Amino acid sequence: MRNTWIAIWCAAGAFLFASCDSGSGEETTTAETTSQTATVAGTDSTLTEDKQELMQFAARNNILQVELGKLAAAQGASDAVKTYGQNLVDWYTTKQEELRELSQQYGVSLPQQLEEEGKEHLTELREAENFNEEYWEQLTEAQQEAIDKFDDGLKDIEEADATAFSVWARNTLKELQAQYEQAKGQEVELKRSDTGLNLDN
């Protein structure tokens, strides 16, 4: 999926998640497949404490990213940022639904609302003088934190582990890495554009 996104990114010259809609069916299929695999195996009914913490972190990150996306869709200084924000809302809403299904399978309770730290970030972003610049900075910081958490949570899980949670976590990590690359690329383009404007003036 990562290669598909990058190809679309280059061809379109934009930073939209054009593969989200087409990928949602694949994600649903993956969730169903991993769930069936867990049922057949009969050993994938509990999670270690570390895995439960990763699942709960993922839920918090999904909530934060949805709120960041909503804010970008409402306050973005360009149509591109607004569209990007809406795509974030759509993608992370889907990921949160997948996570809810997993949490029910494993009997894990997930956070349901944004934490105070996240609320503070959103308030700072709303009041930022340069919304686009601040948005990309906060977005990429949150994405990098998520990647680090998933990397750490998956380091002791064998590639051959095909349990529902492990498959979901590995796929999500790949998608997060692709998103981060796209967001960082857009951040660089924004700074380059600002520099160009300053030089012209």
Notes on the protein architecture:
The protein has 201 residues and is mainly alpha-helical. It has a single domain (46-194), classed as Ferritin, core subunit, four-helix bundle (Ferritin). Helices cover 80% and strands 0% of the residues. The chain contains seven helices and no strands. It has helices spanning 2-12, 19-41, 49-75, 79-106, 116-126, 131-154, 164-200. The longest helix has 37 residues, at 164-200. It is globular and about 50 Å long. The termini are far apart.
Describe the SSE topology.
Elements: H1 2-12, H2 19-41, H3 49-75, H4 79-106, H5 116-126, H6 131-154, H7 164-200
Summarize the structure.
The chain has helices at residues 2-12, 19-41, 49-75, 79-106, 116-126, 131-154, 164-200.
The quaternary state of the protein chains shown equals: single chain
Count of distinct structural domains:
1
**Average of the residue pLDDT scores:** 76
User: What is the H/E string?
Assistant: HHHHHHH
Separation, N- and C-terminal Cα atoms: 42 Å
CATH superfamily: Ferritin, core subunit, four-helix bundle
CATH architecture: Up-down Bundle
What keywords describe this structure?
80% helix; 201 residues; mainly alpha; globular; Ferritin
